[in-house]
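Lab notebook: predicted structure, single chain.

Context: the supervisor wants predicted structures on file for every construct in the current expression panel, including those that have not yet been purified. This is the next one on the list. No modifications to the sequence; it matches the entry in the shared construct table.
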Amino acid sequence: MVTFSHADTGTSEQQWAAAGVAALPELPLDTAELAALTFVVVAAHPDDETLGAGGFLARLHAAGAAIELVLCTAGEASHPDSQTTTPEQLAAVRLTEFDTAVSGLAPRATWRFLELPDGQLAANADRIEAAVRETTAGIQPENVVIVAPFRADGHTDHDTLGKVAADLAAQEGYGLLEYPIWYWLWAGTGDTTWNGWVRVPLSQEEQQAKAKAMRAHASQTEPLSGRPGDETLLSGTFLEHFERPWETFAWHPSHAGTNSAADAERIFDEVHRREEDPWSYTTSWYERRKRALSLAALPRESYESGLELGCSIGTLSEELARRCRTFLGVDASSAALAQAAERLATYPSAEVKHLVMPQEWPEGSFDLVVLSETGYYLSPEELTELLARIQASTTPGGTLLLCHWRHPISGWELDAESVHAMARTHLGWPTHGLYQEKDFMLEVFTAPDTSP
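Prediction complete. Output recorded below exactly as produced.
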């Protein structure tokens, strides 16, 4: 259990900046994707919503997203030693502050107050869960994102609320954004938890809206009076963590999908029969740039035997075939493979095969295996089997390249982060290189060299 006081000096913002928090990848949701979702923002106390996600709330409002806020307590226990203000009086003040802050950040948002006692959310977890379920009733799970305190934030109310939100998101398949607050105070930069988080860069207007909302919470950012017990709760050095031109979240996309490899074969055959190049592989700058980065990330100039899993119409296959003495591209869509075969026709040692992975698998071994934008079209069980196949088929010292789109993949359980995390866990191979940005992540692994 983390022990700290709001009066602690803690880890400074300068230390966090030096640790590289600003280099975290961006949340992979653009304006259109935000607008299509319903966000349920839960706060243990008034000001949590502004500190952790105030700029994000302003962005959601501007995008036209549906926003529902659930406030658990009035934060009446923030000044237990006050000689001038009773808990009841402080509750009234803080609820007014909350309404003012939220109205400035997201005027169209609606909110409800659960009237739970400050500091006692652990005894009211069931009521919180029920309230969130009521708020999300009738909405498709893949269209819901809960925004909640980080489940290991260190404050008992934050931890309880974060765990309720995380458990509910896992049960129902909701997306989840966890916002840290007290973590920035007590955690040291050597704690690796934050390394997997994402940033939401804030525009100047969003920063200004957040700053104005914070000023609305005057009972926490200014002294209640000059009397003992009425001192400022949130110090200026602590607030520096929330004056960044970005906000930070632990991001867990919706895993409401139920499709599998067999579904992928049918779906992608239909897509490729309708259009020759449905994802603009040959024309979009994103695709051309991603291919160039993938090719540049390969640690060797040439390979003996290359395998591309999910080669689609063969745009990357053609580039890979130039660097492999022999090359095989496989895909579940026969319609896509027809185009891939045409692209590889000028390479005598390159071929394509129709295989539904991981149930079907090519013979032989390979010193280069590429899995690009394909891993999340498998169920977790199928991906586990696929990784076992890769492990058995890759020669010692061989290269595995993974590259995946970081935006939500509707209809499937996995996403880019989960695919790469499963690869690290199941293979245990060292990472040769890792590149992440808002749209995609690219990772290269090296198979252990077992030669004496």
